[in-house]
Amino acid sequence: MLLMLLIWVHVLPVLAQVAAVGVRVPYVVATIAAVLSHVAAVAPQLAPVVARVLQIAFLHVLTHVAPVLTNVPAVLANIPGIVPDVFAIAVQFAAVVADLLAIFLHSGITRSLGGHDGGHAQGKRQSGQKGESASHKSPR
């Protein structure tokens, strides 16, 4: 019951605002319709403007492309000399990747076989007798 009372205390002031908004809806719709009629009147005039802007942009690009076109034959002539270099780089890259994979594979194998301590256990075994570390030697 108290909850309903609290809800109504907050809802009643909003209901008056909803009624005020409802009165403004026809004005807003009429304003939107007026703006749309202006847009519809301007739309036919936009087509030639857009076409002209695109034409100017195209001509602007052509003025920058034309000087570059003279270099195209020289670039095309260099391509056969570049292709063998690209293949050589690819072969070297494949060799590097193979070496990395071998390193990772070796690291994984030594870790899985218990050599994950970086060889420290071997040094300890050599300093003691029969696998005992130097600090735990049995007296003889």
Please characterize this protein's 3D structure.
With 140 residues, the protein is mainly alpha-helical. It is flat, with a radius of gyration of 41 Å. 84% of the residues lie in helices and 0% in strands. It starts with a helix and ends in a 13-residue tail after the last helix. Among the domains are: 15-70; 78-114. The protein has helices spanning 2-69, 72-112, 120-127. It is built from three helices and no strands.
Annotate the secondary structure layout.
Blueprint: H1 2-69, H2 72-112, H3 120-127
Helix and strand string, N-terminal first?
HHH
Number of helices: 3
The separation of the N and C termini measures 91 Å
Shape type: flat
Overall average pLDDT? 79
Percentage of residues in DSSP E strands:
under 5%
Report low-confidence residues grouped into runs of 5 or more.
none
Class of secondary structure makeup: mainly alpha
User: What summary fits the major beta sheet?
Assistant: none
Considering the chains and any ligands shown, give keywords for the structure.
3 helices, 140 residues, flat, mainly alpha, 84% helix, 0% strand
Kindly summarize this structure in a few lines.
Helices cover 84% and strands 0% of the residues. With 140 residues, the protein is mainly α. Among the domains are: 15-70; 78-114.
